[in-house]
Specification:
The protein has a nine-stranded mixed β-sheet with strand order 1-2-3-5-4-6-7-8-9, with helices on both faces. Helix 1 packs across helix 13 and helix 4 packs across helix 5 (205-220). Strand 6 (194-203), helix 5 and strand 7 form a beta-alpha-beta unit. 38% of the residues lie in helices and 18% in strands. The protein has 402 residues and is an alpha/beta fold. The chain has two domains: 2-237 and 333-399, 3-Layer(aba) Sandwich (Rossmann fold); 239-330, no CATH class. The two termini are 16 Å apart.
Length: 402
């Protein structure tokens, strides 16, 4: 039965993900929290309580087999909490928390799901809109018996008026970690049946955010969390190598892909206070378009290396643009030694986030003596089609720990 369910998940789970991508409040101030651990919770508002029949009714037609995965009713909350933005200022962020109603005496782990790239606030987990990762992937895993914590990240949900920290290591990891702290306070206040184990997972930007979160938990939080598993899919972990690859070689001319690279560059320019004119980085007419429209600018179906100036490429290749190189290096997370059981899934035909990111991370981690890291190449899969293998692999990986 487990094999059958996994096979059906492989065939159907991605179809929902690829389409998208009354309240009660509890104060965060009165919970009993271990001393010296940040108290981040601001509020928790019930979005809805969903029976198994209600959850199953979401999946009809070609997605009807999803009904096999519905096991428990779930309650979904919008959680707001304090975190620190990249400028050091305290802000209010948000995320979704999903709690399954499990059998008496049963305790379950918490799974933090870091979402992939979204370009609209509708995709933020705390908005819990149909088609979002939280509504589909998150809800199915919650009904399987996982407490789901799903951070919106800075720039969505409660912090939607702020720029998103796109592919910024510390911005993503900090917001995700503080969401976990807030989630823990909600679970404590409700006497939820959490077995204190933490698992983390994410694909694409979520894969990068997951590995960044893992690194932060392992290196900065001591014994605060019992992190037992990390499943990372198709993340841009080796930022220096990936950046040089896309600056010096022809990549996809799909405008939606080139804009992602543009978005990362503009984010680093802003966060690291480089504040350079668009003409430093980009040729005309693209510089004028980008100055006016940011990462949504029309790049006319060009490979990203055809949009940037020769002088910028040269400064990167010869190492003279030290400020930008330092910004990129600060976001590199491929070369360290994880303690947690870690799986890196990646399509070897990925033309959006190149496979070299996971291969280089795996090689560097193994060279440092990490024996608990496994690279799972998804043969022949690109960034979109690789989602299927990633979700199926994650399902099996986490199930093996139950």
């Amino acid at each position: 039965m487990h094999f059958l369910k996994t096979s059906i998940l492989l065939l159907l789970m991605g179809s929902v993900l690829l389409l998208a991508p009354s309240s009660c409040k509890m104060s965060g101030g009165g919970d009993s929290i271990t001393p010296n651990i940040p108290n981040t919770l601001v509020s928790s508002t019930l979005i809805g309580q969903f029976t198994t029949d209600q959850l199953r009714s979401r999946f009809t037609g070609t997605n009807v087999a999803f009904q096999l995965f519905i096991r428990y009713p779930i309650s979904v909350y919008r959680v707001t909490y304090t975190t620190t933005n990249t400028d050091g200022k305290s802000i209010t962020a948000s995320g979704a928390l999903m709690i399954p109603t499990v059998n008496a005496g049963t305790s379950v782990p918490m799974l933090s799901i870091q979402h992939g790239t979204i370009t609209s606030d509708d995709g933020a987990p705390s908005n819990y809109q149909s088609g979002s990762e939280a509504y589909t992937f998150g809800s199915v895993f919650a009904s399987q018996g996982y407490i789901i914590a799903a951070p919106d990240y800075i720039g969505y949900g409660a912090s939607k008026d702020l720029p998103h920290t796109y592919e910024h290591r510390n911005g993503l990891a900090t917001a995700s970690l503080d969401m976990l702290r807030a989630a823990r306070q909600v679970l404590t206040s409700q006497n939820a049946n959490w077995d204190k184990r933490l698992m983390i997972a994410g694909y694409s930007e979520g894969g990068y955010a997951t590995l960044a979160l893992q690194k932060k938990i392992e290196e900065e939080t001591g014994s605060e969390f019992n992190l037992v598993a990390s499943s990372c899919g198709a993340g841009a972990y080796d930022k220096p190598a990936f950046m040089k690859q896309i600056l010096n070689n022809t990549t996809s001319t799909d405008p939606s892909i080139s804009r992602l690279y543009l978005w990362v560059l503009l984010t680093y320019d802003r966060i690291y206070n480089l504040n350079r004119p668009a003409t430093y980085y980009f040729k005309e007419p693209y510089a004028t378009r980008i100055a006016a429209n940011g990462y949504t600018a029309n790049l006319s179906g060009q490979s990203f290396n055809q949009v940037v100036t020769d002088s910028f490429k040269q400064a990167i290749n010869n190492g003279t643009d030290t400020d930008f190189l330092k910004a990129v290096q600060d976001n590199d997370i491929h070369d360290w030694k994880p303690r947690t059981n870690t799986r890196l899934y990646h399509g070897d035909a990925d033309d959006t986030v190149l496979f070299l990111n996971s291969q280089n991370a795996y090689d560097a981690m193994r060279a440092r003596g990490a024996t608990n890291v496994e690279l799972i190449p998804l043969r022949g899969q690109n960034h979109a089609t690789g989602i299927l293998g990633y979700i199926t692999g994650t399902y099996d990986f986490l199930s093996s720990l139950q």
